[in-house]
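Note to self: keep these together.
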Amino acid sequence: MPKKRLLFSMLLLLLTSVLFVRPNFAQDTTQWHLPESASTRLGRGTPVDVQFSPDGTQIAVAGTIGIWLYDAQTYQAIDLLTDHTRSILSCAYSPDGTILAGGGADGSLLLWDTTTQQLRATRKQHKREIVTLAFSPDGSMLATGADYENIVQLWDVADAQYRMTFTGHTEGVRAVAFSQDGNTLASGSRDGSVRLWDISTGEHRVLLTTASVNALAFSPDGSTLAIGSQTNAVQLWDLRTNQRRDNFTGHTSTISAVAFSTEGTRLASGSTDGTIRLWHTGTGQPQAIIAAHTFYVRSVAFSTDGRTLASIGDDNTTRLWDTDLLLMPSTVDIQPKITLHPHASSIFAVAFSTDGKALVSGDGDGVLRLWRTEAVQEQETLFTEHSSWIRAAAFLQDGIIFISKSNNDTVHFWRSTGETQTLFTSQDPFSTTIMFSPDGKTLAHTDSNDAILLWDLTTGQHLTTLEGHIHWIFELVFSPDGKTLASGGGDSAVLLWDVHTGQHRATLGKQESARGRRDDVYALAFSPDSRTLASSGVYGPIQLWDTDTAQRLSTLRGHTGEVDALAFSPDGETFASGGADGTILLWDATAFRTNNVQPSPIGTLKGHTMDVTKLAFSPNSEMLASGSRDGTILFWEFTSPLAQIPWDINEDGLVNILDLTLVASRFGQKTPDLNGDGIVNILDLTLVAQHIGE
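Structure:
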């Protein structure tokens, strides 16, 4: 009896702490709302859109893995709204702040309850990505527009039901906005037109025809519509007279974002020239010019009190600006008051250290980062070159070797002492295909003539040129023993080369010279013993080859489309493949050479919202790191996908208080639903409690 009372008390205390403490109590965002089976998330994805809540207490940043919520006073992350299946390309708060809408990359509309942070509804009418959202002033309706889709859709918010479709545009809709009285909806399209729709009748009139329209904003009093397009000027239209009121000129490139301040006296415009300009709406005079982002500005938004301006740029940063400082003279070089978390773009390089205690990653922002896998946190940023991207990285005995691409391709070496040395710079930039040998002494890359060049990185000397492909080469990989180089590309075949002699050893498959449908090779991976090679391409099936006999061993089918990443575990027991749909399949690699029967996957890992670009196993084969175009790296820990105890939620080998905590923290979600009733609740917690100690 005392033991039962103690267990009940523990459960009560645990429930109280989980249900009434904010999810940022430890600020360990690497553990927030992880997909099932993932142990850690590195990075927060790529930001696309930013909005302030109506009461000014929160900032919503929509991006490739969901919507991050930030406290507008402390700037700390407080939650992540995600369903692990889609990127969110636009977001909008309802006027009363109770609902946050997100536009999905797959055409889905998602509605979250801002009080509970629970997903309230998911609806899909669009076939393409929803890039613009707008609530009516009374919050009863929601308008959505999808890029590359020439319609505007209207939704009833109360029951989250589709209401009607407005047709008239001839190309994709890039912007929608409601008038202050809610009677008119404005839409802007790639077709260059701005159309004004009567909500009650569905009829519309064309306000103007101009270059492709990217952004719209009504003034708070509803009298003026600001239009951002490829004309490089912000156009202001007086809706009472249907006449152009003003042109704000100064940007040197396309206007990509516009926003009025709450009181309507200021307008912010963002451009593909990387700058933000503040304008006085009465006089049309520029008040500030901000060199805000390295690349184009995706989104701008004013806080409710008008004292903060938020912006997102194509350099994948979210920045907050003090508007009081912006109104002071000489504001061109002003710095943001804060940059919300360091976002990352597509992950192109992932590698474990030989002891498995560190991971290096490189992304499309030209940032090389070192992560401690034991503490699961970023240790330091090793290299930053914002005009480039990291194409390859590998650990050596005394540092990390990596390649950055800008105008020229440069091979760098980061020593453990913190020094970065340039080893080699090419005046004739490499193609996108490049690879280091296992010992880091040889570099293989392709050129524009479909040839492969080998370089000695110790001396910087060109070793040899390998010729044999008849179309672009998309992938290179060295065998673990360093003796063989495999190459694959647009001619559907894989070629094997002797690294020492430069001789062509074998051709796997048939080279296709004709244009048209070909199974281009996008990914390659050798088994640890170098005897088996896996290849995959644009149409999905994975081919297994015997590198000694050049014969096909088997074909793996399971992905529904393109497969871009392959990896064998160092112990040779597991093989992983990553697809363009964000799914990772696990295969029993011990069966690859024992029979000619197509094996089935032994496990499926879902959590990325975009293409899986890189896969890497830890040296002990117990962890898999996956990098994605969604800008995150996920860690998946396992010994065997079939060996997990159902009640051991965190997979540490024992059912204990940590599993109880994890279940309780996911109340109301779909996983881990242990009793199969469709939702995580007290019943699942009770099941885990019954197995404590197993």
